[in-house]
Amino acid sequence: MKKKKQNSLISLFFREVSLIGKDHSLLLTLLIAPLLYAFFYGSIYINKEEFEVKLGVVDDDHSRLSRLLQQNIDNSPIVQLIHFSNLKDAEEQMYQGNCQGYFYIPEGTETNLLSLKQSNVVLAVNASRFLPSSDLLMSVQQICLTIGAGVRLQYFQKSEGMSTAVAMDNVMPVNLDYRPLFNERSSYGAFLLPGLLALILQQTLLIGLSESVAGERQNLRLREWMNAGVSNGIWGKGLFYLLLFSSYAFFFLNVNYKILDLPQRANGLELGILLVLFIATLVPMAQFIGSLFKSQLVCLQMMAFSTYPIFLITGYSWPHESLPLLLQWLANLLPTTPFIAIYTRMVQSGAGLWENVSAFFHLIFLWIFYSFICFVRIKRLLINLNK
Q1: Membrane-spanning regions, if any (predicted)?
Q2: Structure pTM?
Q3: Which one in 33, 93, 246, 263 has a CA-CA gap of 20 to 30 Å to 79?
């Protein structure tokens, strides 16, 4: 009996291979799309950081301090300064999109700073584009604080006769030691790419397998597929996808991560266990979704449409706890939510698999849940066919 069960799983595995070989849509989705998307989307963010973001500058102070500020800002690899003679021209160029903001140094800046008065400079940025405005703010703010502190340090040393240590205590009574961990350069690409590769793995599996199941219904092959029993049918078909996408996961972690220069700090065995569990959860989920459709084309369209919403609500691009309550409940039904919570901590910070036990058992629960509802759904379809 056991041998017969094994043989049925193997025969269903090769049956799926044969079906995919005859279906150009499945071939494209399963054998080309994962690698194409991984390399294409990865290449977009391969530099990970922006360089030479254009920033207009208007200098009405014309002092040694203003020239020092401009020199240091222009030396930053993130910023490229464009000089304007007046504020109106700088504003106009920002509105036209020729620069992402402007830096204005008003008259009397150096004089006020040397006399220990408040000295204001203006940084206006186009916040409709998040990355350029954030990068400009971080770079210019750091330079202004550093140069401002240096000028005041010299003032206390020369005018008040203070030693360097005492003058430094007066200039910076509280010193912030800022140390970004795991993503040391705070780059957007290093943050986005690990989750993006996981999403590509998930969506190509969901689209391909659900489309395959919809094809079984469309071509009236449901009885043929389930000839060896519902459980055997589900996991016989799913075995091909489990092996294929486990191979893709291994490839991404060893090839794409290296090409994209992404950190991989996880224990290999623990990460492998997590990925196999994640893919095993997606297999019955995809088959349940596919069983809801009688048309491969409609199934493909619906699943392709779901990609971006799934990415948005799983807690990667936006904190899970900040979502509306209804969306939080919906997100908890997606395997991506607990998987991403564990996966990102493992690959980026080197956390262990058991350091987020609740998310791990959440993923196991979803595997049981989707296996159950997939079994019930297909059983009901078979009953309806026999009526």
Answers
A1: 25-46, 188-209, 230-251, 271-290, 297-318, 359-378
A2: 0.81
A3: 263
